[in-house]
Amino acid sequence: MASIATLDSMQPVSPTATRSVSLQPRARPLWHLLGPGSPGAVQSAGLPLPEIMQAAALTDGFIARTGREEFLIAATTPPTADGLCCWCYGRDDRVLALTGPDWRRVMAQVCHADLRGFGPNDWQLLAAAGVNLWCLGIDEGLLLGCDPSLGHYLQQTLTEVVRDLTAASGQSGVQPTSQRPTPTLAPEPASASASASPSRIGDQL
Amino acid sequence: MKLIPLPDLGPHPVTEFDYGGEQSRPPLVADDATWAAHVFNRTGAPGVLREWWYHRPTGGWYLFERDTAQDRFLRSIPVQDICYELPTDTSAV
Amino acid sequence: MSSRLTPQPFEWIERARPLRFTLEGEAIDALQGDCISSALWANGVRILGRSFKYHRPRGIFSLANHDINALFEYVDDTHLRGDVTPVPAGINLTACNTLGGLKQDRYRWLDQLSPALPVGFYYKVFHKPRWLFPFWERLLRHTAGLGQVRSSWRRRITPKWYEHCDLLVIGAGPAGMAAALTAAEAGADVILVDEHPHIGGSLDYQWTNDPGAEAPRATLKQGVTAHPRIRIMTATVAAGYYQDQWVPLAGPAGIAKTRSRALIVATGVIEQPAVFRNNDLPGVMLASAAQRLIARYAVKPCERAVLLVANAEGYRAALDLQAAGVELIAVVDLGEPAERGPLASKLAATGVEILAHHGLYAASGKDRLSAVSVAPLGADGSLDDTQERWLRCDGVILSVGWAPAAHLLYQAGATLGYSQTLEQFVPLELPPGIQAAGRVNGVFELQAQIEDGRRAARAALAELTAATDVASEIKTSGPASNHDLAQYRDPNAHSHPWPIVAHPKGKNFVDLDEDLQLEDLLQAAREGFDNIELLKRFSTVGMGPSQGKHANMNAIRVLAKVLGKAIDETGSTTARPFYHPLRLDDLAGRRFRVHQRSALHERHEQAGACFMEAGAWQRPEFYGKAEQREARVREEVAAVRGALGLIDVSTLGKIEVLGRDAARLLDAAYSMRMTRLKAGMTRYALMVDEAGVIIDDGIVGRLGEQQYYLTATSSHANATYRSLTRFALEWGLQVRLVNRTGQLSAMNLAGPNSRRLLAELIDIDLTDDAFPYLGLREATIGKIPARLMRVGFVGELGYEIHVPYHRGAELWDLLMRKGQPYGIRPFGVEAQRRLRMEKGHIIVGQDTDGLTTPFEVGMSWAVHLKKPFFVGQRSLQILKPGTARSLVGFELQPGHGWPEVAECHLVIVDGDIRGRVTSVAFSPARGRIIGMALVDSEVAGLGRTLPIRATDGVLVTATQVAMPFYDPDGLRQQADVQRQEVA
C-alpha cells in the first residue's frame, strides 16, 4: 500500500464545537516600503529580511515582504527611505484580529484559500468576501488588513459571520447536521405588520 | 472553478484574476490595414494562446500559454520574453 | 394506524418515537426516521400524487428520488419530495398538482382526453384563433404545474462555505467506503459524502439477507466512521462537477464549495423501469424501492406480488419480499432463470411459479394496481399477446436493469461507452484526477465492488503523489491508467436491452415525470426529431424534475431501435448540474455586496447627505431631504460660484509613479506630452486605448525629478493602475507604481473665498507667483500634511487637497469650522456635475462612450501626435482627418419646463436618429437648461437647432451654443475675482 509522505494529516474541525471566535479592530502604524534600495534600507535599520511572501515578527509589530523590492512594515517608525531608489508611504489599512479556536470556520465562509496549515507568522495575500486582504498568522488566529475604504464593509461582513456562527453553535435541540432538514412551521413574526401577506416577494427582502 | 497555477505562489482561483486579453506586440511600422487588424481582430480559432492575467490580491501581471480548446494552462512566460523598446524618435509619425 | 414489519436489522425508523401528521386533513401515524412516502404507504395510502399532464394516480416508484410521483407542499414550503423528506410532525400536507385532493382530483378527466393531447400538442394547437391563446395559457398553467410559491414565505439565509480535502469520495456504498478507507490509511485527507442520511448504500437494503455481507458491512462502516482522516457528510448531495475538482456539496446546513485534489465517483446505479401498459399504477414499483421499504422503514410493499426480472438482483428481491411475508404470485423472467445464479434456484425451491421467457403485457386497476397480464416471448423477443394471462396482485416489482449515475463523470469530461456485455454505459476514459468505482463502473459483485473501490483509491493516490506544483513544469498528466478500470467488471449483463412492450391502447410510460408514453417517442421520431437532442427537446423526455434518471436510458433504446443504430451511435444527452435540484436560498448563500466609503462618511451622514452609489462607492449626491433635491442642489451650486464649497473627492484614483523611467511611462501612456512637465506643476491627462477611444482622464503632477503623482477617474482608478503596471513591464521600464486611491482622503475646496480661507491655515505662500494655477505643492494645513493642486474642474478658484485617510475627517472639520465666516457649504456629486457642465468639461463614460475619440469632444489639443509614441497614437492618426461625431453644447428656451429633457434622450433630425443627450441640467449662470449632446457631425453647428425627443415622445427644439457656457476665458479659476486683499 502506498504511503504519502508529502501529505500532512489534517485535523478536521468538529462541526458541533461551541467554542467562540472574536473579531477586534487593531489600530497600528503601517508603512509601505518599496524600491530597488528597499532591502538595503531594511537591513540598515537592523530589521530581519524575510523571503518573498514571508513575514517575521518584530518587537512592536511585523515585517512582511510582498515582493522582491517591496515590504509592508508594522512598526512605530519605518526604515529611512532616500526618495531616490527607496520610497516609503504610510498606510491606513483597516486591521482586524480574528481569534478564537473557530477562526478558520469564519474564514471558510468568505475565503476559498486552504488555511488549515496557516499558523503564527505565516503570510498570505488573498481575496476574501470580494476584497483583497493581507493575512498574518498570530496565536490562535489571524491579523487581516484591507484598504481603508473597504474597512467598513469587511468589518461588517466578518462581524455578521462571527455572529451567525456563534448563534448556530449555541443552539440546543437542533437536529444532527447529518440529517435532512425536517419541514417545520415558521415561527410567528414578532410584529403584526410583518405577518400581513405582501404583494411582492421583493417586500420580504 | 478553474485554478490558475501561479509560478511560486501556487494555484489560485480564476475569480482572483482580471483577464488581460491576448498578448501581442503592436506592429508599430505597418500599413493601416495591418494596424487595424492588430487593434480589432482576435485569434478565435482553438489553439495555444498567450494571454495576460492580473492577480488582484498580489497586484501582479502574469503571462500564460493556454490551450483554449481544452482550457488548460500550459506554462507561464517570463515577461522579459515579450518586452519591446519604446520608439524614441519621431520617424514613425 | 400504521402497520409495520418486525424490526429490520438496518432500519432507519425509531420505533420509540412516534409522530403524527395529516395528509389533506387525514391523520397519518409515522415514526421518526420515516420519509413521507414510507409513512403514507405504511398507513395504506396508495395514491401519493397525481401526474403532471394527465393527472393519473401515482404511488411509490423508485423511493430513491429518481421520480417525482410524490410531491407535497404545506403552508411554509412546496415541492417536498416524499421519497427523501423526513416526516413533518404536526403539519398538514397537501399534494402538488391536484384540484380537490389526491383522491378526487378534478383534473383526472384529463386522462380520458389524452388522445387529444399527444406529444408536443401545445406546439400545434392553441395558435388559432390567437385571441383565445391567453385563455388556454391560463388554463394550462393551472392544470399542468407543480407546487405553489407564496410571497409570504420568509427568507432563510444559509451561508455557503469552502472546504478542502485531498480526496473526495462521492457515495458511501461498499465501493466508496472501501476507497475512502484505503486512501485515508495511506495518509490522504478524505471527505466521504452520501446523499442519504446514513452511510452504507446498497449494503443496507440489497444485501440485507446475505450472510456474506455481514463482515464487510461492519468493517467498512465502522472503519470509515472511526478513521480520523475521513470526514463523513451524509444527507449531502454532490450537486455537480466544476473545473479543477470543484464540487458543491449541498447538505442540510448549506452548500460546502469543496476543492479536492482528486475525486472518486462511487455513485452507483439508478434502477430502470420496464415499459408496459399502465406501468405507472400505484403498486407497480422498482425492486430496489420494495427493498428500501422493507429494510429502511419496515413497511410491506404489498400483499401479493408479481415480479418482472432480468437479472440476479431480481431473485434476491423476491427472496427479500418472501422474508417480509409477501405472497409471490409469480416471477416473470424475461430470460432464462438458470443463468441468474444460485438465488434463482433458491427461490424455485420455495415453490414459487417462475415463468421463463415471459414478459408483462399490461397492468390494470382503478386508482391502484389490481392485476397484471403476462405473455410468453417469441424467439425474436417480441411478446405474443394472444396468450395473455391475467394474474391478480397488488404489487408488480420490476428488476430489469440499471443505468449508471455517471452525471459527475460526464461533467468532468469522462467518456463513456455502451458495453454490450453489461448492456450498460461504462466509463472508458477518465480525465486526470477522476476515478470511478463500484456499480457506476459496471462492477456488481459485492467483494468485487470493494476491490474496485480499493483500486480506484490506489490510482487516485498514485496521481496525487506524482503531481508537482511547480508552475514552470505544470504536470500535464494524461488520463489515469485506464487499462485496469475494467478489471472487476461483471461478465454478465444486469440490464435487459429491451424491457419495452408496445400496446395498442398505449399508457405505457417511458418518462413518468412528463407523462410520456412509448408512442409519443415513436411519434416524435416519425415527425423527424430523430436525433437524441431533438427528441429530448420536442418530446421533453428527461426534462422533468427527475431529469431523466428513470427515463433517459429507455428513450435512448427506443431511438436506437427506430433508427436501426447501435446505442453508442445514438448518443446520450448532456448531464448538467445539478444532480438533484438545489434550493435557491442555499444557492444564494450569504450576500456579499462590496461597498466603499471615504473617511468622511460619517461627516456626510451628520450633514444630512443623500447618498448615491457610484460603482462600489457611496457618495453624497447632495445634502438635504430627497424631496427638496432640486432646491438644495441649486443652493450648493450657488455657494460654489458665489462663496465657498467643499466636496469630498476621495474616490478619485491616486497613483504615485516613481523611478528613472517615470516620465517615459506617462509620456507613452497618455496622449499629451509629459516629458516637459516641470516639478511643482500639473497637467490635464487624457488616456486613450489602442483604438484611440478615450478611457480615462485625470491630472498628472510632477513632484520631483523622478517622482510623479497622478489622479484618475473614480470608476477607472484600478484599471488605470493595472494598465500602467502592465505597460511598465511590456516596455521594460525602470519605474514603480503605488496605488494610493483608498489610502488618501481628498477634498476640493472651491469658490472665490477658497484662497482666503486656506491662507489662514496653511504654511506656504498662496500668491499666484508662489502657487500658480495648475500648480502642485506639499504643505501643512493645521497640523495635517497635505498635497495641494490648483485645479479648474468646476471653474472656480479652487484647491484639491490630498491628506492621509485617517486625517481626512480632521481636515474636513477644520475647513468647515474656519470656513463659516466665508459662507462655506458642503456640496455633492450632483452640484459638481452641473458646475463642470457649465464649463464644458466632459465626464469620461457619460459624455463619451465606447467609441468616442478625443477629436469628437473637442480635445485635439490634448493629442500630441508628434510624440515618438503613445498608446492609441497610430489609430488617432488614421482617425484624425474626419470625425463622424461631435460633442456639442445646447440650451433650451428660458423657462422651459415640460417635457423634461434627460440624459440619453435622442436627437432626431428628419425622422432619423442623429445623436443623444449626454448631460443636461438647469444652469443658474445662464438662467436656463443647458446640456451636451453627442451628435453626427453633419447636424452640428453653432446656432443650429437640435430636435430632442423628450419624455412622452415630444420633440423639444434646443439651440446649439458654444462651450464653455460660463466664464469661457477661464478667469474665475485662475485668480481671485474680488481682489480686495492679497492673501
Descriptive notes:
The complex is a heterotrimer of chains A (205), B (93) and C (983). Chain A has helices at 38-44, 103-110, 151-170, 192-195; strands spanning 22-25, 30-34, 54-58, 61-67, 70-74, 87-91, 94-99, 123-128, 131-138, 141-146. With 205 residues, chain A is α+β, with helices and mostly antiparallel strands. Chain A has a five-stranded antiparallel sheet with strand order 1-7-10-9-8, with helices on one face. In chain A, 37% of the residues are buried. Mean pLDDT of chain A is 78; it is low at 1-19, 171-177 and 190-205. By secondary structure, chain B is mainly beta. Chain B has one domain: Folate-binding superfamily (Folate-binding fold). Chain B contains one helix and six strands; from the N terminus they run E-E-E-H-E-E-E. Chain B has one helix spanning 32-40, and strands spanning 3-6, 10-13, 17-22, 48-55, 60-67, 72-77. In chain B, strand 1 (3-6) and strand 2 form a beta hairpin. The longest helix of chain B is centred in the middle third of the chain and has 9 residues, at 32-40. The model of chain B has no long low-confidence stretch (mean pLDDT 92). By secondary structure, chain C is an alpha+beta fold. In chain C, the strands form twelve sheets. In chain C, strands 8, 9, 10, 11, 12, 13 and 26 form a seven-stranded mixed sheet that branches. A six-stranded mixed sheet of chain C has the order 38-39-40-37-31-41. In chain C, helix 4 (174-185) crosses helix 5 (214-226), helix 11 (518-526) crosses helix 13 (552-563) and helix 17 crosses helix 22 (829-838). Chain C is elongated, with a radius of gyration of 38 Å. Chains B and C meet through strand 1, helix 1 and strand 6 of B and helix 19 and helix 23 of C.
Keywords:
heterotrimer, B: 93 residues, mainly beta, Folate-binding fold, four-stranded antiparallel beta sheet, two-stranded antiparallel sheet, 1 helix, 6 strands, 10% helix, 39% strand, globular, C: 983 residues, alpha+beta, seven-stranded mixed beta sheet, six-stranded mixed beta sheet, 23 helices, elongated
